[in-house]
């Protein structure tokens, strides 16, 4: 990760440890009680933004073993960002003090698979395919499985899109006040790996 900010390193560690508990079926299910709800009624301070896929198999609070008020989540098919998503991230970092943003791709992503297969798509799904397409160019000459490589390339590209987003996020990255990482979730073994 391109940061020397130790606070950000600690929150990343917190996510990694939560995912470890989840993948080993040793969850602690933190922050899901009445006390936490009441505490949060005064205000939220989520420690990470997760840009994830809408896929029903990847609910961030479950796979990172976190609770209420912990994660600020943006989920759309293919874990891509548009202006609305970037505005949501800006809100989290500027108003809630969140410092870490994780873009989370995952194995067997239907949105990426459809983009790689290149068949006809209908309606607004076309917008998703167009957003994912640049990742195929990054992945097409790599050894291994094209779809899996595209899933990882897409997560990396979305992370760099967030990092270079003007006028707010790029400046905060430059000042090392926030960091953006890309990661990959394996839907079979439940493990998240930082890319
Ligand atoms: Zn997906």
Strands, helices and their partners?
Blueprint: H1 6-23, H2 34-40, E1 48-52, H3 60-63, E2 71-75, H4 83-95, E3 100-106, H5 110-117, H6 125-139, H7 146-163, H8 169-174, E4 179-185, E5 192-194
Parallel strand pairs: 1-2, 1-3, 3-4
Antiparallel strand pairs: 4-5
Helix pairs in contact: 5-6, 6-7
The structure holds zinc ion (ZN).
What key attributes describe this structure?
195 residues; alpha/beta; five-stranded mixed sheet; 8 helices; 5 strands; 46% helix
Verbal overview:
- By secondary structure, the protein is of the alpha/beta class.
- Helices cover 46% and strands 14% of the residues.
- It is built from eight helices and five strands.
- The protein has helices at residues 6-23, 34-40, 60-63, 83-95, 110-117, 125-139, 146-163, 169-174, and strands spanning 48-52, 71-75, 100-106, 179-185, 192-194.
- The protein has a five-stranded mixed β-sheet, with helices on both faces.
- Helix 5 (110-117) crosses helix 6 (125-139) and helix 6 (125-139) packs across helix 7 (146-163).
- The longest helix is centred in the N-terminal third of the chain and has 18 residues, at 6-23.
- The protein is globular.
- The structure holds zinc ion.
